[in-house]
Task: inverse folding
């Protein structure tokens, strides 16, 4: 029996994933959580083999939650299940301990296959995500940022410092406003600031 945890804040998606897992012979959902705080209590309590993790949770990102869970449970296999197709987020998730990255427009059989693959020690990824990962290795890397910002985060910090709103940053960077919010959360954390004004001030001091 493969046991699974679902961490997803959207009620419809969470219910659908739970029903899908429980309808498949040999698979059982042992807990379903809507926040990182809940997951950090329930997942260690139930000790699932695999966790399906959304990136955009209401209290903290699924990436941060993944890092905290895999620190407590090194054998836990975490698959990110998300709408975000952003190279930085993919690598941050993998660095945090995720073993796979699946886009939410999956077919039901793809989720079960991904869980099975993760349980067997594989790294399940939507083909589009796998291609993005491969392409990233063909791109020359820039000098490391002193604050540990990724290339994408440094780009978004520059746009923020120019006074752009999240929607304007999203349009310029060709990503969604939700992805911008997640990146800004990581930027604030790395720069040790609490707001956009402090982040912009740090940007100008860095120049």
Result:
């Amino acid at each position: 029996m493969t046991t699974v945890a679902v961490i997803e804040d959207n009620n419809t998606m969470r219910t659908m994933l739970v029903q899908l897992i429980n309808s498949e012979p040999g698979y059982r959902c042992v807990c379903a959580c809507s926040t990182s705080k809940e997951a950090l209590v329930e997942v260690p309590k139930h000790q699932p083999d695999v966790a399906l993790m959304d990136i955009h949770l209401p209290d903290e990102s699924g990436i941060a939650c993944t890092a905290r869970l895999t620190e407590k449970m090194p054998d836990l296999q975490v698959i990110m299940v998300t709408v975000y197709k952003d190279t930085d987020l993919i690598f941050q998730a993998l660095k945090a301990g995720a073993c796979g990255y699946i886009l939410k427009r999956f077919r039901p059989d793809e989720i079960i296959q991904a869980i099975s693959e993760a349980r067997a020690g594989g790294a399940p990824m939507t083909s589009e995500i796998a291609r993005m990962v491969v392409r990233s290795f063909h791109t020359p890397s820039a000098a490391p940022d002193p604050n540990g910002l990724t290339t994408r985060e440094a780009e978004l910090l520059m746009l923020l410092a120019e006074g752009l709103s999240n929607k304007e940053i999203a349009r310029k960077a060709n990503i969604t406003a939700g992805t911008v919010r997640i990146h800004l959360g990581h930027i604030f954390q790395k720069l040790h600031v609490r707001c956009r004004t402090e982040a912009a001030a740090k940007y100008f001091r860095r120049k």
